[in-house]
AA9 family lytic polysaccharide monooxygenase
Amino acid sequence: MKYLPTLFAATAALAPSASAHYIFSKLVLNGEVSEDWQYIRETTRSECYMPTKFTNTFDNLTPNDSDFRCNLGSFSNAAKTEVAEVAAGDTIGMKLFYDTSIAHPGPGQVFMSKAPSGNVQEYEGDGEWFKIWEKTLCNENGDLTKDAWCTYGMSQFEFQIPENTPAGEYLVRAEHVGLHGAQANEAEFFYSCAQIKVTGSGNGSPSQTYKIPGLYNDNMKLFNGLNLWVDSADAIETDILDTPVGDDVWNGSGSSSSSSSSGSASSAAAAASSTPSYSGYSSYGQQYSQQYSQCGAN
């Protein structure tokens, strides 16, 4: 898409952005799609699909808050959320609400955290997290504001639970980061947590773990300063590597390894030299709210 250097064009460009908000609400097991919020903790947000941001927030939630683990108020729904049994080595998926698809440029990743008590329904996610899957830039001929990103157009994340994952109950956190507003410190985070019970005899231990909050901060250029309409693919890749998004995934061994799910886009170029303005939520968000106001059981 080329952005005309006019206020009208810049404002119009917000329409697909606002209407492209989403949230992971379904778990996919053996090819079968669950009900919304059957295995995924439901947020208490009145508009469940709205993103978390560092600035110009929708409901004062930022990546610096404890609810950044699994989304606003979701722990209050943990006890009524079912726990899916999954064998280590199985491939599962987390699917978006309302059968929508990702229409923002940016990376996706999946983290896991084991419930220390053994009961994930009682676990807030304040322990250690490790990354098992990620997708960043992969289309060398793509548009950095669109399909240069592997996740662009996806309706679900599909990933393997590492074969050597120890048995127990876990939170599985799927996250997509929309970078279309990063130049204004308005990167958008879309995320949810599933509750699973891993079976098997695995005894692996990830070497790199994280705490949430603490995973990201707004001094990271990827979220505050990157400009998809101006920056080169090489510069974006450097910004990715300066954050946990660029860290290796754990494959079940004693150490982490590079993920084959991400690829190089070093030859990709920005689609346009002019930058659209980005001023947060607009009336388009209100229209989207009316269309998809029923997020679930809340």
Summary: The two ends are 37 Å apart (CA to CA).
